[in-house]
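Re: weekly structure request thread

Next one in the queue (371 aa):
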Amino acid sequence: MTASFRSSLFVLALAACGSPPQEEAEGPALPAGTVELSDAQLADAKIALDTVRITDVAIPMAIPGMVDAADPGSAVAGSIVEGRVEQVYVIPGARVAAGDILVRIHSHELADARRDLVAAEAQESAARQAWERSARLLEARAVAREEVEGREAAWLAAKGELARATEIVEHLHPVGEDVTIRAPVGGVVFNVTVRIGEAVLPGQPLVELGNDRTLWVTAWVPELAVPSLQPAAAARVTLTAFPGDTFAARLVRLGGRVDPMRRAVDVRAALTSPPQGLRPGMFATLHLEAGPRQPRAVLPEEAVQRGEGGAAVFIADAPNRFRRVPVADAVMLPDGMVAVSGLQEGMIVVGRGAYTVRAVLEADPEAGHDH
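Done, posted below.
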């Protein structure tokens, strides 16, 4: 029973006796956000009190990030010649195997390479025949050994030039009169950056692809938190496209340099079991248990009550009087405790039974507002 309610009963009793209510009989109003519990309410609440201790705590972090393909499984297929795009064989989302044709390009470089190959084949054949003839003449003592050795060296040089010319043509993966660009790895096509008829240059990116079965979350961790990071540390990931679900992950790569603009280091976490339908480019949040150490009060979860006005605790001002005190930065710790800021060392807060105190306060509209 609240103090306000008891005062109302007292006023009604006086009215029944024919005496006018006395204003001073109501007693002083409780401060805003303060509530008194009756003996029965105290017994039902089974309240347990905790003393606030401020200590340095590793604060878990929630960092915005993005889903991406794993770096080792990603690739960009670029143009290896100057020419014009004749055909594009893939679209984003298509699955390809290593070696599949992605783009066909018409280029004069293929014609030049084929001419060089024909010339190298002719040179190699002539040099080989000359060396073979000289070798036969040497057996008949018709030529000097030095001439045979010179012709052999010329043949070996021509043979090397033929291998080089052959490799160049094979590198262009010719199909008819066109050069073909093929998938360097198997996987899914993420992006196609070229169209039919477009002129391209050597090195120009054409198709981005990679393995979408191994996905990472990339995030930027503030530099103050970097010393607390450990390779292979466990992490959690929440995804905008999968609200309410949490996915296990582990750190697989820590950046080696602080970005001068962000003042942060890029971190990559591999999802242990990516959900069906997850795609690179989706928004994610990376949750790391070990963050920078900061001074905080660590309380039982029940002690920190969350409502429309934010998180708060109840301070014991007297054995049956409790005052709501807002707290900030309420973060759940891995052991189930809650770290908060805004409290002072030595304060006495309600642990077990805080929900009952809050319910009584919210049931009394006069207690929760300023007068």
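Residues 237 and 247 are 5 Å apart (CA to CA). Residues 1-25, 367-371 have pLDDT under 50 and may be disordered.
Next request, please.
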